[in-house]
Amino acid sequence: MSDNDLSPISTREARRLFAGLKSAPALVLAVSGGPDSVALMWLAARWRRSLARGPGLTVVTIDHGLRREAAREAREVKRLAAELGLPHRTLRWRGAKPKTGLPAAAREARYRLLAQAARAAGASHVLTAHTRDDQAETLLMRLLRGSGLAGLSAMAPHSERDGIVLARPLLEVPKAQLIATLKRAGIGFADDPTNRDTAFTRPRLRALLPLLAAEGGDARTLVRLAARLARANAAVELLADGAERFLRLRDRGDAPQVGLRSFEALAFAGLPEEVRLRLLLRAINALGHEGPAELGKVEALLAALDQAITTSPRAAAKGRAILKQTLAGALISLAGGRIQIAPAPARRRKGG
Ligand SMILES: Nc1ncnc2c1ncn2[C@@H]1O[C@H](COP(=O)(O)OP(=O)(O)OP(=O)(O)O)[C@@H](O)[C@H]1O
Predict the structure, then answer these.
(1) What is the residue with the minimal CA distance to atom 31 of ligand 1?
(2) pLDDT tens, residue by residue, 207-224
(3) What confidence tens digit (pLDDT) does each residue in 250-301 have?
(4) Pocket residues for ligand 1 (CB within 6 Å)?
(5) Burial of residue 319, with CB atoms counted within 10 A of its CB: 0-12 exposed, 13-18 middle, 19 or more buried
(6) Atom number, ligand 1, closest to the C-alpha of residue 106
(7) Ligand 1: which of 28, 29, 36, 37 to mutate, most ligand atoms within 8 Å of CB?
(8) How far is CA 64 from CA 93, 192, 223, 314, in A?
(9) Which of 162, 244, 303, 323 could form a disulfide linkage to 115, CB 3.0–4.6 angstroms apart?
(10) Which intervals hold domain tRNA(Ile)-lysidine/2-thiocytidine synthase N-terminal (predicted)?
(11) What ipTM is given for this predicted complex?
(12) CATH class of residue range 3-135+156-228
């Protein structure tokens, strides 16, 4: 860790971090009470005070109803928000909690409630306090899960959900620097023991980071890799847009049937592999009923299509289907020189 990682964030630096949010009508700050999000609230309040005109800030805490201390932590956030002159709301995740996949369900509920709070506050953005350390952990998690280029790009600085922009202004900032900022300001924060609970994947991966850093691959290296992959991913997405237009043009404006995507097989086969994968993924996710499709399965489908087109191009050009497969609720077939993707008939949907 460099000395810079431990130095408190200056007002000038805070202005740079929040610069893109100056003209938003209002912002919701997602604050759990942990160090990262308390620092987000403190920095955002300081930034807002430095502006003559700027967005209104509302602090929101979600009580998932999973830990006894959560209500007290929410009250503590409210107290600190009041000290900073910011309105605060606590929203509760109500209803039955699932027995398996609890972290994912809690996360889903949290983002739904945060988006609701943003709409109620007239806010265009919800700000979370994801740090550089979170980004490094996300990359590792996705690596182990076998993600492709899009997943390995990790978290974007901005993304959209239900018409609300999720912004992560602290994505380049090391957690240690946020803690140093709070210490300098004399502000306390909650300690969530689930962050260290090795029953969950993320805390186990977190323990790996110092070992990787000792081998020369610190959080900065991992985050730089994610940024490079995000760049490459954006380029492939653009190429896929162009390839879709190219394939449509080759169809000379023949109107495609509604609810069906269809590509000329030989023109499709000439495109780069990563682009072919994107086109299949897009079509399957748009038309299938069980998406999103698993990348590994789409890779296997592409291999089967390539094999069918190259080993028997004549048969591929004739009317009879030489390949028919269901995947993620979509039916993919190769017949009459075309690859067709359509919703799978109801009774076949389980086969993906
Ligand atoms: N209970 C909460 N109330 C309000 N905001 C929260 C709460 N929990 C998390 N957040 C926001 O989400 C950010 C990320 O939190 P955390 O890393 O714990 O989430 P996660 O479960 O890993 O989900 P994600 O996939 O969003 O990273 C926090 O910095 C904070 O801004």
Answers:
(1) 128
(2) 888 999 999 989 999 999
(3) 887 666 666 789 999 989 999 999 999 999 999 999 999 997 999 999 999 9
(4) 30-32, 36-37, 61-62, 107, 110, 128-130, 134
(5) exposed
(6) 21
(7) 37
(8) 5, 13, 30, 59
(9) 162
(10) 27-207
(11) 0.94
(12) alpha beta
> What percentage of the chain reaches a pLDDT higher than 90?
72
228 is written with which tokens?
């490079």
List Cβ neighbours of 29 (8 Å cut-off, separation of 6 or more). 37, 40, 41, 44, 57, 58, 59, 60, 86, 127
Q: Rounded distance, CA 154 to CA 347, Å?
A: 36
**Range from 20-24, 156-160, 308-312, 339-343 carrying the lowest mean pLDDT:** 308-312
Q: Are the beta carbons of 124 and 26 closer than 8 angstroms?
A: yes
**What CATH code is assigned to 251-351?**
3.30.465
Atom of ligand 1 nearest to the CA of 129: 29
Per DSSP, 263 falls in state E
CA distance 162 to 177: 32
The confidence score (pLDDT) of residue 3 equals 52
The answer to whether 3-135+156-228 and 251-351 have equal CATH topology is no
Nearest CA to ligand 1 atom 7: 32
Beta-carbon count within 10 A of 119 CB? 13
Q: For the chain, which residues make up each domain, given as ranges?
A: 3-135+156-228, 251-351
- The token pair at 61 is 């805490």
> At 317, is the pLDDT very low, low, confident or very high (cuts 50, 70, 90)?
low
How far from 120 is each of 58, 59, 78, 94, 162, CA to CA, in Å?
10, 12, 18, 18, 13
28-59 pLDDT, tens per residue? Answer: 999 999 999 999 999 999 999 999 999 999 99
- Position 352 pLDDT exceeds 50: no
